[in-house]
Amino acid sequence: MTISIRSVEKTFGRYPALNSVSLEIADGELLALLGPSGSGKTTLLRVIAGLEFPEKGQVLYGEEDMTFAGAAQRRVGFVFQQYALFRHMTVAKNVAFGLDVRKGAAKPSKSEIAARVDELLRLVELGELGKRYPAQLSGGQRQRVALARALAVNPSVLLLDEPFGALDATVRKSLRKELRRIHDATGVTTIFVTHDQEEALELADRVAILNQGAIEQVGTPQEIHDNPSGAFVAGFVGESNRLDGEVRGGRFRLGDVEFAAPGLADGGAAAFVRPHELELSPAGDGSFALMVNHIAPQGAVARIDGVTPGGLRLEAAFARQSVADVRPGSRLDVSVARAYVFPQ
Fold first, then answer.
1. Do 333 and 289 touch, CB atoms closer than 8 A?
2. What's CA 308's distance to the chain center, in Å?
3. How many Cβ atoms sit within 10 Å of the Cβ of residue 170?
4. Tens digits of per-residue pLDDT, 67-100?
5. Which residues lie across from 65 on neighbouring strands?
6. Residue 308 DSSP SS3
7. 10, 191, 202, 209 alpha-carbon torsion, rounded to 10°
8. 22: closest CA among 47, 57, 61?
9. Which residue of 86, 140, 276, 311 has the fewest C-beta atoms within 10 A of its own C-beta?
10. What span, in angstroms and rounded, lies between the C-alpha atoms of 157 and 96?
11. Phi, psi of 286, deg, nearest 5
12. How far, in Å, CA of 74 to CA of 189, rounded?
């Protein structure tokens, strides 16, 4: 199911939650809505679901205008952060709920419901737990039950609001892989909200970055990370050293740090340099000194906190072998391999 969001606006009192938001979601796509708290991502998800209605704009499912249709008419599956499982029902009954409550000819037979439940429990790898109750499951297992329940009704769209927010880091990583596997197996158009950029970049086909009720950029995880459209995206996605300096004659300058910034007019500018885009360089030749304060080994990488002679604090990341002899107090000569520079 394709979804088209066209110039949607939504306010709560005087607060503009969505400001002329437009977004195209392809059939079978896994899209992440990513942004800080209050950016409008959950409101947009609820507008797509039919749980909120916009003051302006349109929501199309395929060619059908669903702007003011309720959630039931849209055939959406919704997974909430807190699972919302029925504690008095078994896992199998929870999964079957959406089918059991159908009326008349729309309700499948008991055997069809049982077959569908078995199919979904196998899909989420809970095939042996159908007779258990939610209280007997781990948090990760309960989340998978909620996902199976949302899929039971064959939704046209699957919507997830911070689906892993209540889980610890290890379980989150495991379930991210499970969600990707389940999405690929079902092919259902899926939209999920998260404030966790690692989650969005690892899991999604495309990511939409929201800020203050507007979309800043939409693209693949690589496009978002490697080609940010502006200062907000550059600072929000991935780790960066932010440098507030100026451009003069095609070069960015801030204290000890200077590097090429072609194509920018002279004036104030914000530069974003990712830790891994600082590189070791011979003294001179555009390099500057970085005095090492702290070294933290992380697998094959050594993360270094340092300060330039002019007092500018920077984080750098190098292959551990290249800085094996470096200690706190050592001097490194480094240069900027790549930076994202935007006028201020």
1. yes
2. 34
3. 9
4. 999 888 898 998 887 767 899 999 999 999 989 9
5. 60
6. coil
7. -20
8. 57
9. 311
10. 18
11. 80, 5
12. 13
